[in-house]
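Journal club prep, shared notes

We agreed each person brings one worked example of a sequence with its structure written out as tokens. Mine is Murein lipoprotein. I'm keeping it raw so we can talk through how to read the token line rather than staring at a rendered picture. Sequence first:
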Amino acid sequence: MILTRQHFVMARALGVAAVALSLSACATYKDEFAAVNSRLDQIDTRVQSAAQSAEAANQNAQRANQRLDQLEGRVQQLETAPGRRPRG
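Then the structure, token by token:
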């Protein structure tokens, strides 16, 4: 998740730089800056989506760990229980 956060920060910084440059650049570069800004918006969207997916995966892993913890107690209880004699 640190990598996606770094990408998000970098994309945002590049976006700000592109906007600043587009304001100071001459009009002939307007289309090129628009293309760069569009690409940055796409990257920003992908980074946000990846961050949401990572968060969902983290939550799923936490739930799985909780289930394992619950099972561990039951397994230890069964392992330490005295042996049962068969019926019949």
